Automatic annotation (TrEMBL):
BP-aspect Gene Ontology terms: antibiotic catabolic process; response to antibiotic
Leader sequence residues: 1-34
Taxonomic classification: Bacteria, Pseudomonadati, Myxococcota, Myxococcia, Myxococcales
The protein's name in its UniProt record: beta-lactamase
Top-level lineage group: Bacteria
Keyword Electron transport belongs to the record: no
Keyword list, A-Z: Antibiotic resistance, Hydrolase, Metal-binding, Periplasm, Signal, Zinc
Catalysed reactions, as listed in the record: a beta-lactam + H2O = a substituted beta-amino acid
Pfam family, one: Lactamase_B
Length: 266
């Protein structure tokens, strides 16, 4: 017997057409839909982009404008972590416009509007976008020391406070001790094993420790070790600038600390 009944001469024309369509659909395999690569970058503006680094986790990159002088064009990383139907922004870009672009993308394209943000230390590549979040009523969290230092510098201040070790939605926040700055936090995404080291961790291509204006190079090595102990399951590390790497970035930062600190290239 034929796997699909052939139309009878007595059937109405519409029924015959329906049977033929069913037969064609049953014998045609479903189309293969290509997925977007996890490493594909989406450019949101000339100086703002996002890249999915793991399921539910995005790295955002903002670049300093020419107004920043020697820092002009310097890329700064941050995170957007999906949290159910919303998301959390980690570090806010160099200026309010950067944050506005990221907030719009999270709301209109990712369809997970930012419900809260946190900043990892008081420098402007972390806190510069805070006014854009304040304008939209989105709470920005930071350590008490971060708020105090940002206020003293006349820079945007996070309005809410973080403890030195706490969960924050899908993230875990930890203060390992001083390093790049006296107040630098690291942020872990347990679901994927991604650690956001911020400026506390240098990228693999870095030849020096960067901006040491507020650094504590004496305390930094012990702070790196506390990070290892607090998050032993790290698989990927996102530094504050340039490309992500593996846990070896902690060792690379330690190696740079053993050398004579000098240049402040970024």
């Amino acid at each position: 017997m034929h796997p699909f009944p052939l139309p009878s001469p007595m059937l109405p024309l519409r029924a015959c057409v329906l049977l033929l369509l069913l037969s064609a659909c049953a014998s045609t395999p479903p189309p293969v839909v290509a997925s977007t690569p996890a490493t594909e970058e989406t450019v949101l503006a000339e100086d703002v982009s996002v890249r999915r680094i793991a399921p539910g986790l995005w790295v955002h990159v903002t670049k300093a404008s020419k107004d920043w002088g020697k820092w002009s064009g310097t890329p700064a990383n941050g995170l957007i972590a999906e949290d159910g139907e919303s998301s959390i922004l980690v570090d806010t870009g160099w200026e309010p416009r950067h944050a506005e672009v990221l907030l719009t993308w999270a709301r209109d394209t990712l369809h997970r509007p930012v419900r809260a943000a946190l900043v990892t230390h008081f420098h402007m590549d972390r806190v510069g976008g805070i006014p854009a979040l304040d304008a939209q009523g989105i709470p920005v969290h930071g350590r008490e020391d971060t708020a105090r230092r940002a206020s003293a510098a006349g820079d945007p201040v996070p309005g809410q406070r973080l403890s030195d070790a706490q969960d924050f939605g899908p993230l875990s926040v930890f203060f390992p001790g001083a390093g790049h700055a006296p107040d630098n936090l690291v942020v872990f995404h347990p679901a994927t094993g991604v650690l956001y080291g911020g400026c506390f961790v240098k990228d693999a291509q870095a030849k020096d420790l960067g901006n040491l204006g507020d650094a504590d190079v004496t305390a930094w090595p012990a702070s790196l070790q506390r990070t290892r102990e607090h998050y032993p399951d790290v698989r990927v590390i996102v530094p504050g600038h340039e490309l992500p790497g593996g846990p070896e970035l902690l060792g690379h930062t330690e190696a740079l600390l053993r050398e004579a600190p000098g240049a402040t290239s970024r």
